[in-house]
Amino acid sequence: MTLDLYTLHFASAASRCAYVVVFLVMALSQRQQTHLWQWMGAMGASMAGSLIMMRVPPDELPPIPVTVAVYWLYGASIVLAWTGLRSFFGRPARTGLGLALAALPGVFYPVALGLGLSIRLALAGVFACCLVPTLLAASETLRLSAGAERLWAQSIETVAFGFYALVFVLSIGMLVGTDLPVASAESARISMVVDQVMGVFLYFGFVAMAAERAHRTLLRLAETDPLTGLSNRRGLQTMLRRRFPRPGARPAMGVLILDVDHFKAINDRHGHEGGDRVLAEFGARMKAALRATDMVARWGGEEFLVVLPGTDARELLGVAERLRAVIAEAPFLLSSGPLRVTVSIGAAGLGPGEADFEEALHRADAALYDAKSRGRDRVVCAPARGPDREVACVGLRAA
Predict the structure, then answer these.
(1) Greatest CA separation found in the chain?
(2) Is residue 149 packed enough to be buried (19+ CB in 10 Å), middle (13-18) or exposed (0-12)?
(3) Residue 301 burial (10 A CB sphere; 0-12, 13-18, 19+)
(4) DSSP state, 387?
(5) Which of 87, 206, 231, 262 could be 35's S-S partner, Cβ–Cβ 3.0 to 4.6 Å?
(6) Cα–Cα distance for residue pair 202/156, rounded to 1 Å
(7) Is-above-0.85 flag for pTM?
(8) pLDDT in tens, 66-75
(9) How far apart are CA 321 and CA 205, in angstroms?
């Protein structure tokens, strides 16, 4: 069965209308997410263009005013898709460039005809104007923001915009290099089918990207301690699985458990706000004193856990003592005044290839209990295992 152009234009407008409704609901529930409004605008502009083209006979070129309006709408649709991607990835807006690119297709066509260019060359110029924002949008899906993780759904957008760019290039080549008719029912039908298919991919990709990032955000929140910004227990376990998918192949590593001394007294004297301030500053000092490859987590309450990959028993005590000194050397500034805070640390080593991380945690926890029973503000190392057994495990205390 051959579909007529009226039906194809109606189907295009109806599908875009459905996406507009979906994104309107999303945008109203997340009003600060500007990319949702921009993508909704892109779909709305494309929908309006399809509704206008429903009234144009298939074998005729529309009047210039109608053509200009349609090209403006289609140009705005592509540009809003591009600027929405920039907003989605947290990149600065290019408002001036966006407005110019959106207006260019509708401006170029009548100006080109007014200068005496043929309709074929004028249309080729319009497609070239549309090609530029399409390539810009495709490039946005290939770039990564600083510290960001690539979304799987970005690949859908890369393919969709890449295919649209290819269609524009082929159309320019056909207009410039052949004498095929500019307006025919068959070519219009083919272009509409292609647009329908790729439009589904494009708009579904927007939904998929928003959903995938929301899912990752929820996972990150579930694995992050909201007070300190460090990982929680679940987050640390996730990091360990990602870094060392085969536990038996782990390098030597050190484990430190840190406990803020007399934290209940701090809470009682300075209130929970003061206690929260101490914990947040404590976590910040620890993170600043460690390597980027070290893993830090708030283990619960006033306890923190540090995992130091590639650290043997000889280095472990030095790192632990440095952390103890970083906490003790400068007072914590609270609203009630400066407060000296100390920490007790239990340390344990895990040899290369040893898979029993939980056992190392138990040894570090026992060493922490020993440090607290000896008077706090000190480091105690659990007896080493394996080839490092000869390394002495001593208690260190501030002078």
Answers:
(1) 94
(2) exposed
(3) exposed
(4) G
(5) 87
(6) 7
(7) no
(8) 889 999 999 9
(9) 51
Asked if 244 and 252 touch (Cβ cutoff 8 Å), the reply is no
- Rg over alpha carbons for the chain, rounded to the nearest Å, is 31
- Report residues of the chain scoring pLDDT below 70: 1-6, 9, 56-61, 145-148, 181-192, 247-249, 353-355, 384-399
> Residue 34 CA to chain centroid, in angstroms?
16
**For residues 384 and 382, what is the distance between their CA atoms, to the nearest angstrom?**
6
Three-state DSSP class for residue 184: coil
101, with CB counted inside 10 A (0-12, 13-18, 19+), is buried
Residue 276 backbone dihedrals phi, psi, to 5 degrees: -65, -40
Contact 149, 216 (CB under 8 A): yes
Helices (H) and strands (E) in the chain, counts: 11, 8
The CA distance from 274 to 47, in Å, is 56
Residue positions counted in the chain: 399
3-state SS assignment for residue 340? coil
Backbone angles phi, psi at 306, to 5 degrees: -125, 130
Residue identified by tokens 């007790």 is 344
> What are the start-end ranges of the H helices in 152-302?
154-177, 185-222, 233-243, 263-289
pLDDT tens per residue across span 284-313: 999 999 999 999 999 999 999 999 998 887
Q: Give the whole-angstrom CA distance, residue 83 versus residue 288.
A: 36
- Residue 277 tokens read as 């301030």
Determine the 3-state secondary structure of 293 from DSSP: coil
CA dihedral sign, ordered 293, 143, 46, 191: negative
